[in-house]
Amino acid sequence: MPLGAPVALRRLFDEIGTVDAVGVEERVAKYATRSIKTGSKVVGLKLATTMVDLTTLEGKDTPGKVRALCVKGLHPHDDPDIPPVAAVCVYPAMVKHARKVLGYDSPINIASVATAFPSGQAPLRTRLAEVKAAVSDGADEIDMVINRGAFLAGEFGRMQDEIAAVVEACGPATLKVILETSELETYDNIRAASFLAMRVLREGDFIKTSTGKTSSNATLGNNQVMLDAIRDYYLDTGTAIAMKPAGGIKSAKQALTFLVAVKETLGDAWLTNSRYRFGASSLLNDLLRQLVKMKTGTYPAPYVFSEAAGTY
What we know:
- Helix content is 49%, strand content 9%.
- The chain is an alpha/beta fold.
- It has one domain: TIM Barrel (Alpha-Beta Barrel).
- It has a seven-stranded parallel beta sheet with strand order 1-2-3-4-5-6-7.
- Helix 6 links the parallel strand 3 and strand 4 (141-145).
- The radius of gyration is 19 Å and the shape is globular.
- The two termini are 31 Å apart.
């Protein structure tokens, strides 16, 4: 373990173990070498489509833009065999507009980033009020950012207390806890933060790699460290925590490789959008292009499909 780690972090490493970084990199490099048969590839592409959180998180978002996002999420393509996405994700102020379009019997969820996304630098009472407002307006899911400063200072109780308070504020809504892995700096820290978050989450809540607003987002490496933590926590407690890599996953080939990692680490039980998501809106169009190619033999140009509203 790092010799310079705070005492609290060193104690946690003693409890949960540290990460063999070289071993992780060697393992994830092998995922891309797996051969996927044609039939399995089509299944995988459709599965990945059902796992996308289609997102717009821009200051210029409008009700009309959110409406277009919802329509695309419900009907990604005119081929009825292509399923809808898992969720649309918007800022809290846009939740009510998404709910107006989707109603209350939609096959896709409404997710909202909250807790002063992406920095998390706001008083706790402000962050909790934002969560409650989003849920009140119809959000099914909340994506929150952890207090990275508290974690890096070894104030684990404070970090967990804040997550627990957000869990309570969510009520029935699913919570996705964003670790912002690039700011945690090491695989050991990512594993530690994963365990700290999972210990105050409920069955079916998520841990998530990134906001997509930093220079480094989801990688196969940090995804693997978090999958391993989920596996170890599940084996220890029986509580199934879900996973969401976010940011930087742009191609269907990347998505299939991430799904290989899920299958080989956690098994088929996690190959569902209730336990695995992609926070990568720009991914959707490439999944659609690949599905069209598999069906027609022709690879359509990117402009054939409307651009997703945003990515994170």
